Here is the input.
Amino acid sequence: AQLLRKGEKKQMFPCKGLLSSKRIRNGTRGYSSLANTNVVVVGAGTAGISVSAQLLRKGAKRVTIVDPSNNHYYQPGWTLVGGQLMSRADTIKPTSSVIPQGAQWRQQRVVGFNPEGSEIELSDGSKVGYDVLVVAAGIQINWNNIPGLVESMGNNGVCSNYGYDTVCHTSEYVKHFKGGRAVFTQPSTPIKCAGAPQKIMYLADDYWTKKDPKMQKEIHLYSGAAGIFGCSHYAPALTEVCKAHGVNSHFRHELIEVKGKDQEAVFKHLDSDNVSVVKFDFLHVTPPMSAPDFIKNSPLAAESGFVDVDKHTLRHVKYENIFSLGDASSLPTSKTAAAISSQAPILVQNLINSVEGKPLKPLYTGYTSCPIPVGGGKLIMCEFNYNMEPQESLPWDQRVPGRFAFHLKKDVIPPLYWNGTLKGLFKGPDALPWKKTKE
Here is the structure.
């Protein structure tokens, strides 16, 4: 971890196929057509930056990244911030500092797509043409879809890990909680990492128990999902974790209103439409999310609102010069940074194949990972594919909470993110030396 923070890439990762800079530089040979291709990447988050960096390492010379944000955030760290395990300051860097060398940055919002004319429209009224477009604009958080949430945030025990400006409230309310009823919510919509609403619940209870073993508290999970976790391989283990923490689980319940001053949360049962009002002393809200409006209302959108791509090649189902990955895409897998690390090299290779007139390879199997801290310095590393089959990276049963996996999440993965993923050097779990690499 210390080497990662210092960015000592050459000594850190000598294994062929993992982060070998020499291997990547040699890969630029023969990609003259890529060098002449105008690639526009919408989004400077994890997906956009990692794809751009990998393209440049493959020989691309004309890469433009379009994103209005001043800052880039390590969002997986916000769970750790709320759980008193990481400083919020360690989750933010200026966007300018993560733009790969050789890429051009247009700091504008995209407001429209013209796929027939191969151009996008920006908020300043200008238009940007492209030969190939990569849409990596992330997911939209719909705070205003829950009446009372915005007004209540940061007051009367209401908090959320889902924003840089709101995770500080989680940290403070977890730290100063004196007991009572703690309520955690999860919507029925797609969200960033389906396991995240549980993570803060377990970490908060772990902190409270260590702080005051005799604290009188009730913990409730109100989830729009049908069960604790979508992958049945891990669900029984997580059910046991809930029992260990004394969690009262209420499934198929959607948060529809927050009455902050009265410290009341209003839920609707998704099957019966029955409405219930729940008093709370602490309320952590996972807000509903959707595709960004400018994608949802565009010709690129699937019925879900996300960019309509082939789930194995990551190319748009209609427009052959458009690709997408990460949270903005229609890929039917959990939306995580780990998923992006697996998607990015496949997209890059298929983009190159497309430019060179070669067949695309249907290599993406839906790999994603939800590393769930369960308390006590341990973690369940959930890794699975489209078929909800385990696709594990460690040589033991990952359903068993482990300390090694916890330290990966807390101490290794954050610096690997900044110094590996965003620099186009880490290519996901298939690059690990003990796993077979897809050819």
